[in-house]
Amino acid sequence: MNSAQIEIQLIASLVAIACAIPGTFLVLRKMAMISDAISHSILPGIVIGFFITQDLNSPLLILLAALTGIVTVILVEYIQKTGLVKEDTAIGLVFPALFSIGVIMIAKNANDVHLDVDAVLLGELAFAPFDRLLISGVDVGPKSLWIIGSILIVTVALLITFFKELKVSTFDAGLAASLGFSPAIIHYGLMSVSSITTVGAFDAVGAILVVALMIAPAATAYLLTTDLKKMLALAITFGVFGAISGYWFAHWLDASIAGSITSMLGLLFLIVYLFAPRKGIVAVLYREKQQRTEVSLLTFLLHLKNHSEEEERHVNHLNEHINWQKVRSKTVLELALKNNMILIKNNIVSLTEKGDDFTSQAIDYIITNEDAEIEHMKDDFFLFRG
Amino acid sequence: MDITEYIKLVFSDYTLRTITLGTAILGAVTGMLGSFAVLRKQSLLGDAISHAALPGIALAFLITGAKDSNTLLLGALVSGLIGTFWIRGIITKTHLKSDTALGLILSLFFGFGMLLLTFIQKQPNANQAGLDKYLFGQAATLVVSDVWLMAIVTGICLMVLLLFWKEFKILLFDADYTKTLGFNTKFIDVLITTFIVLAIVLGLQTVGVVLMSALLLAPAAAARQWTNSLSTMILLAAVFGAFSGVFGTAISASQNNLSTGPIIVLVAAVFVVFSFVFSPSRGLLFKQIRFIKNRRDLELNKTLAFMYHIAETHENISHPHAIKILNNFQGYTRGSLQKLVKKNYVKLDGNMWSLTEEGFKTACNLYNQQTDE
């Protein structure tokens, strides 16, 4: 690993952390698409800043672009407040219009300036180490490292200072307001941080990767935990993992670093989406199947309790009368036997004492319909689940 | 270039004619389908799909190695559909909300697409140039066969729309009821989603990934302001979309260095702003006018009610009072008094006012109405 490689990975990791923090709150506040809107609509801000300074690294660019980001948020809110369209439509109307203005401004003046839509939108992390910051002639490292580093420090400082406020206003805006901190200030604070982070980051990695780095790690973390601190920690971990593994993947493929970081994040999300212990697809489908079998079992037990006559309790009756297929009847019977709830003698099914007890309690539950008692009951009675 | 010259050119110049026709058809079909997206609160789905189509284009190119636009569109369609149904899966199977799902799929698919594109660029194949026109769109690359494809898709779409009109309509406004009536909601849902994806994919080449979502939304959002009827809205949206396409092409053709896609989007945005402001029933302008008018009426009634209370304490309702008394009450202005005089509710005599018989009756009724409610 040479120093340029280390620098790229360092920048990518810092960007990932700086994005994951506001991203977590955006995901929790159901405002994830705002980051996409901001990342596109800051284009005119950048272009105007560039026309004024003729320098792609001027801090004025970041300032103007961040301002455009906040203007986007205000515009979206204004349109939404008129009640003419819904919030998502408002977002969808505002950012393409602003983006179009930016593209046209670039196109109209493309002859005499060096500014390319591709460069702004897509970014190229691989060039970041070549753009050095010189302080009185001394090379102190790549410029993007300093930019994103300072943004990260401010973000972390704000996060630590206002953690409680952020937490309360995210989960209960009404409570936050009644406790005396204005949800509007928190909202715009968060929007400003997101906007500045987007600008600072996309100079290095491009607009789309910023969105991916904001949303993907936070969404992945949200599938694994509901604890805010853990979610932040996980999101940061995933972001950094995506940044570093993505860099080496790109190195191996000789392709876009931003694209491959995004792809790694996508892969990570896919794995968690499928296999997360409680909220993954596999777990959800398994639980659904389990519940279906258990509901069938309960129906069957209730049926047994209601009928003392033998012909209603014959095993074949399950297939004929209740209309269950053989496989399903078999699973239900097996589950009931395993849990000692029924006895089968000469193909006649009867309830055991335990089964009778369980069914009585289940009937009580169905009649009174109190809370989620049935899950506790299942825990009490079942040795094996469906 | 003046307008008559331009119109002549549209009919004589092959390229211009193709582009104008293409963008008009595109605007019409996206306006039509966009109405459904807007009404189903899936406005940003277009944005997500247009980004999600990118890896499909890249993969189709990698597999076939040819830049045949139909193959690429097929790839885009497939990956757009995968993206859409994954979004749905995320929303229904996890506790992640729709905006997270949209942003996630949008950025992840697009990033993967970028990875593939840069990978393709490194391949020793001279064919790959021009794939990036799908990112920003280039109306100039439209050829007659593309326009035919768009027209055919629009035709099929229109036919399906007419055939399943009842189902589409009821699904939009009451999905649960549709299910209880025994309609196969899943089928209708998949059908409409597929058409939305198809329209987006068709537009990618013309206006590009980023701006496609605006073309889907803007005409529909503008049309929504003018009507409450679905059929009128769809029709209007199609017209707005088509006009955005035609005007946008005209403006961008009349000047150098103006890319067509962004101009079309801006024209559509102008339609939206105009509709937001000037629509008679929902528009901001008339709403404000109605608001001011209502406030004035209210002030007038307040003044009248105040006068009534004073007059009530006298036997003769027309007993004159000094205008100063009204100063205690802030709702009155010179203007409102004059209006009351005009309506013959009040008589002004220098600095003295008195209620007329008619004014007393009206004020009395006003008061009764207030207490009744």
From TrEMBL, chain A:
<protein>
    <submittedName>
        <fullName>Metal ABC transporter permease</fullName>
    </submittedName>
</protein>
<keyword id="KW-0472">Membrane</keyword>
<dbReference type="InterPro" id="IPR037294">
    <property type="entry name" value="ABC_BtuC-like"/>
</dbReference>
<feature type="transmembrane region" description="Helical">
    <location>
        <begin position="256"/>
        <end position="276"/>
    </location>
</feature>
<feature type="transmembrane region" description="Helical">
    <location>
        <begin position="204"/>
        <end position="224"/>
    </location>
</feature>
<dbReference type="InterPro" id="IPR001626">
    <property type="entry name" value="ABC_TroCD"/>
</dbReference>
<feature type="transmembrane region" description="Helical">
    <location>
        <begin position="37"/>
        <end position="54"/>
    </location>
</feature>
<keyword id="KW-1133">Transmembrane helix</keyword>
<keyword id="KW-1003">Cell membrane</keyword>
<keyword id="KW-0812">Transmembrane</keyword>
<feature type="transmembrane region" description="Helical">
    <location>
        <begin position="60"/>
        <end position="78"/>
    </location>
</feature>
<dbReference type="Pfam" id="PF00950">
    <property type="entry name" value="ABC-3"/>
</dbReference>
<comment type="similarity">
    <text>Belongs to the ABC-3 integral membrane protein family.</text>
</comment>
<feature type="transmembrane region" description="Helical">
    <location>
        <begin position="6"/>
        <end position="28"/>
    </location>
</feature>
<dbReference type="GO" id="GO:0055085">
    <property type="term" value="P:transmembrane transport"/>
</dbReference>
<keyword id="KW-0813">Transport</keyword>
<feature type="transmembrane region" description="Helical">
    <location>
        <begin position="144"/>
        <end position="163"/>
    </location>
</feature>
<feature type="transmembrane region" description="Helical">
    <location>
        <begin position="175"/>
        <end position="198"/>
    </location>
</feature>
<dbReference type="GO" id="GO:0010043">
    <property type="term" value="P:response to zinc ion"/>
</dbReference>
<dbReference type="GO" id="GO:0043190">
    <property type="term" value="C:ATP-binding cassette (ABC) transporter complex"/>
</dbReference>
<feature type="transmembrane region" description="Helical">
    <location>
        <begin position="231"/>
        <end position="250"/>
    </location>
</feature>
<feature type="transmembrane region" description="Helical">
    <location>
        <begin position="90"/>
        <end position="107"/>
    </location>
</feature>
Automatic annotation (TrEMBL), chain B:
<dbReference type="GO" id="GO:0043190">
    <property type="term" value="C:ATP-binding cassette (ABC) transporter complex"/>
</dbReference>
<keyword id="KW-0472">Membrane</keyword>
<comment type="similarity">
    <text>Belongs to the ABC-3 integral membrane protein family.</text>
</comment>
<feature type="transmembrane region" description="Helical">
    <location>
        <begin position="45"/>
        <end position="64"/>
    </location>
</feature>
<feature type="transmembrane region" description="Helical">
    <location>
        <begin position="263"/>
        <end position="286"/>
    </location>
</feature>
<feature type="transmembrane region" description="Helical">
    <location>
        <begin position="190"/>
        <end position="218"/>
    </location>
</feature>
<keyword id="KW-1133">Transmembrane helix</keyword>
<feature type="transmembrane region" description="Helical">
    <location>
        <begin position="101"/>
        <end position="120"/>
    </location>
</feature>
<feature type="transmembrane region" description="Helical">
    <location>
        <begin position="230"/>
        <end position="251"/>
    </location>
</feature>
<keyword id="KW-0813">Transport</keyword>
<feature type="transmembrane region" description="Helical">
    <location>
        <begin position="141"/>
        <end position="165"/>
    </location>
</feature>
<dbReference type="Pfam" id="PF00950">
    <property type="entry name" value="ABC-3"/>
</dbReference>
<dbReference type="InterPro" id="IPR037294">
    <property type="entry name" value="ABC_BtuC-like"/>
</dbReference>
<protein>
    <submittedName>
        <fullName>Iron chelate uptake ABC transporter family permease subunit</fullName>
    </submittedName>
</protein>
<feature type="transmembrane region" description="Helical">
    <location>
        <begin position="21"/>
        <end position="39"/>
    </location>
</feature>
<keyword id="KW-1003">Cell membrane</keyword>
<dbReference type="InterPro" id="IPR001626">
    <property type="entry name" value="ABC_TroCD"/>
</dbReference>
<feature type="transmembrane region" description="Helical">
    <location>
        <begin position="71"/>
        <end position="89"/>
    </location>
</feature>
<dbReference type="GO" id="GO:0071281">
    <property type="term" value="P:cellular response to iron ion"/>
</dbReference>
<keyword id="KW-0812">Transmembrane</keyword>
<dbReference type="GO" id="GO:0010043">
    <property type="term" value="P:response to zinc ion"/>
</dbReference>
<dbReference type="GO" id="GO:0055085">
    <property type="term" value="P:transmembrane transport"/>
</dbReference>
